[in-house]
Backbone:
């Protein structure tokens, strides 16, 4: 076999190996996680009612949505970090809304899912905006605001699971 034929074979094997490695990294980034963490620091301090309520409702929603993808014993799997950068819950005075001033019944949660390797390097980033028409109409109940935030968190987790590849 001449050098030219050997070079073509080497190039083909190198290309196949590169494709295999890229597919493996992509599969690792989207199919299995060692943990799921919610970061609400962008929407308020840990003492903020809104940040605390979003974290308390979004974490269990994400655990339920990604139950088949989280493997705590897999130390090589990347972490899924969900960073919430904005929440708009219409007409909730306790959380900064302007109750009774009309407007829309649509609540929003904005953020991004970060797939982070063991060294803290972001492998992939998935920005997402979730919009949910408020269907919790029992405004007279004491936990009305929490139910709306919980519904928004469930919606965000449901659609985030579908946005990530291999989920």
Residues:
């Amino acid at each position: 076999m001449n050098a030219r034929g050997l070079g073509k074979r080497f190039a083909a094997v190198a290309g196949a190996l590169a494709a295999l490695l890229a597919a493996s990294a992509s599969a690792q980034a989207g199919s299995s996680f060692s943990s799921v963490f919610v970061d609400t620091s962008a929407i308020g301090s840990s003492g903020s009612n809104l940040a605390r309520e979003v974290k308390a409702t979004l974490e269990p929603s994400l655990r339920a949505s990604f139950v088949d993808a989280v493997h705590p014993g897999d130390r090589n799997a990347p972490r899924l970090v969900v960073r919430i950068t904005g929440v708009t819950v219409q007409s909730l005075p306790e959380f900064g809304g302007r109750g009774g001033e009309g407007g829309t019944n649509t609540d929003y949660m904005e953020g991004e899912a970060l797939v982070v390797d063991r060294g803290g390097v972001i492998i992939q980033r998935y920005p997402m905006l979730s919009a949910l028409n408020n269907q919790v109409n029992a405004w007279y109940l004491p936990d009305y605001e929490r139910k709306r935030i919980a519904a928004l968190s469930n919606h965000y987790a449901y659609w985030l699971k579908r946005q990530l590849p291999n989920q």
